[in-house]
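Changelog-linked ticket: flavin mononucleotide example.
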Amino acid sequence: TEMDHSGSIPKLMQKIGEDKPIYCSKMGAKNLEAHFNRKFNFQVVGTGDSLKIGNRTFSFLDTKMLHWPDSMFTYLAEEAILFSSDAFGQHYAGDMFFDDEIGDEIMPHARKYYANILLHFSPRVQALLKDVAKLNLKIDMICPDHGILWRDNPGKIIEAYDTWSRQEPTRKVVVIFDSMWESTAKMARAITSGIESEDVNVRLMNTRKWHRSDIMTEIVDAGAIAVGSPTLNNSIFPVIADVMTYIKGLRPQNKIAAAFGSYGWSGEAVKILNKDFEEMKLTIIDPGVKVQYVPDEADLERCFELGVKLAKTLKEKLS
Ligand SMILES: Cc1cc2nc3c(=O)[nH]c(=O)nc-3n(C[C@H](O)[C@H](O)[C@H](O)COP(=O)(O)O)c2cc1C
């Protein structure tokens, strides 16, 4: 019922006749009414129901919380098409409609969509994939409500969802930071060098340059994150707070973590970041590195060693 799916319903109904039935899930009926503050001719359908229109048969599968409470899959048996609502979508709009037209270029978009829209529902995605497999449906095409349609190899996006929803860590660390006067930035670069010295992949992401959704996309398959913030007004830097709030909501799992940051006098940032990690149930592998004002060689060496520790701990975990 989110407006990007439903916004044109009143206009459409005006055109085709307001008495026409709208087939939707139970929550769909409730939520559409709450959006448009009026009732339509809602016909509630759900898992196990089917609907014959002419020589076409539509059957339904509730997919609650993927990603709204009203979400539902619709399967068109005669054409072997799965209309998957938000699942398997991408925030992509272009002049191509099908996976075979765009090729593998679409996968980063699909991954970004998963990371930012569905990651926190990963256990439900796992359950849904099992349910769909049990139904043994012939699927020639998957039509999500966003982005391109999967007709060349629908199995590819199903497999990708299986991988992403398992949240299995890989040999990759994401280093996220912001900095007012470059001190925390220097620390971030030293940590990155430490990680690289252990032959582990690393993404260094300055929150001034990267949108939170790009950061989240990198986190999905990372085995570890390091977050750095200067202390500002006894707290963390607001942009880092923004990113941490966002990451927390999407509930990444199975990751190790460490914090770092420069400070002037009170230095609360590392403690606050560690508390965030605890709430996110990430494994904190080090109390974190704090540096007063500008890091000297010894401080940068401590940062390098933190990078080494992150990389080594991750490698041990994956071995
Ligand atoms: C507006 C402002 C507020 C600050 N508030 C604090 C503070 O409450 N506690 C503290 O320890 N340092 C505080 N600092 C000092 C910074 O944390 C310090 O300059 C640090 O080295 C900045 O790191 P950066 O170069 O990564 O930005 C503040 C700095 C600024 C500019």
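Closing comment: Example verified and attached. The pocket of flavin mononucleotide is lined by residues 179-184, 230-234, 262-267, 293 (CB under 6 Å). The longest strand covers residues 170-177.
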